[in-house]
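User: My notes are a mess, but here's the protein and pyridoxal-5'-phosphate's SMILES. Can you give me a structure?
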Amino acid sequence: MNQQEQFRHWQQLDAAHFLHPFSDSRQIGERGTRIITRGEGVYLYDAEGRKLLDGMSGLWCVAVGYGRRELAEVAARQMNELPYYNSFFQCATPAGIELAAKLAEITPPQFQHVYFTGSGSESIDTIIRMVRRYWQLEGEPQRTVIVSRWNGYHGSTIAGASLGGMKFMHEQGLLPMPDVEHINQPYWFERGGDLSPAEFGRRAAAELEAAILLHGPERVAAFIGEPIQGAGGVIIPPESYWPEIQRICDRYGILLVSDEVICGFGRTGQWFGCEYYGTRPDLMSMAKALSSGYLPIGAVMVGDRVAKTLIDKGGEFAHGFTYSAHPVCAAVALANLGIIQREKLVEHVRNAAGPYLQRRWAELAAHPLVGEARGVGLIGALELVKAKQPRTWFEPRGKVGERCRDLAIANGLVMRATRDTMIIAPPLVITPGEIDELIEKAWRTLDQTLIGLQKDGWL
Ligand SMILES: *Cc1c(COP(=O)(O)O)cnc(C)c1O
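Assistant: No problem, the inputs look usable. Here's the predicted complex:
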């Protein structure tokens, strides 16, 4: 089979047998999947032999870039030595122990303990169980309500999708589960109206206090949020937002949970998103860049307040996953963190790549289709609008983003569309030259999107 025949063959098998996550299977049958076969640095290669600049790090994962032989070798060594053992019933493997110690070292000082999982969603489930267990042990078992945000994303298990605020996910599965309360997101561009970002941020945070008072402070267990909402469209809260959330959590004694699955491990130019915003969470969920996606692994950082209660009063915590602290995944995660430290990638994002990307990304705001270009570190979003003043969105929403995304891919750039918000989160290793290429491809894509919209009567 030549390359094109092989590609068609895979597409046929895929359409016949493979049900994809977050995909419309009928559309796949009609349009075919994109099949990625190889990666190197910030680039992907597909089954048709095309080269793509991966502006999304896979799914926000591949912090150290593709093709790291070192990680492959660590995995092979661990597989040969001990491919699997569990961490139930007072067992451990060296890789799990060393990764736990490394995480305690690089996370903020209140975190000395870690609970391993297999994914971000499992970390969220674990946090719900831990939070409720904590309040039981503290003699306040009625504290079961968890507050989160509309349009937040916390994974796809029953619990993760419940805490998440994706209404289209709730509608498909009798969700959310009980005792989850959603408040509005700090999405200034869409919801800020005439308010300054600072005033809007305070009002968005005040919704937490309102939710606490609605249920009664004695019923509320925790608040959870992503420092910057990723999948929801890179929603960057005004500077006033997180300090106010922290103040409200402190005032009512409720636990603060930072979902660091995207912001963790350098994305913002700090190790963790909570450090970028100056909050002091009690728990953090992590996954994705923890292993740069090379193998599946997640973790929950358990702050001293919760850890002390669980350890001193809790006895056996009746919870765990077969693959918690899987030795091969743990060894690769440890080596991945070693690369991030050795190559000073967090500093690279803070001092070099982040500022440069943000400067170039902001230039895109001059494009007639772009209502806002925002970003922090190596994460960014563009709001595509029909008119800038007053802000006018395309109707129906989401179609223009999809067109722009398809054109980006045709131009050799992976950008993602959430509604009509175009988002990027490239690997942390991206160089200035590669950033220039990303911006140049984004410009070309926006120009082509505009021409297509004019031709088809959208404008
Ligand atoms: C991806 C993501 C999750 C879920 O992680 P999975 O590994 O897909 O289960 C949870 N929270 C956030 C913020 C995420 O981006």
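The longest strand covers residues 111-117.
User: Great, I'll file this with my notes.
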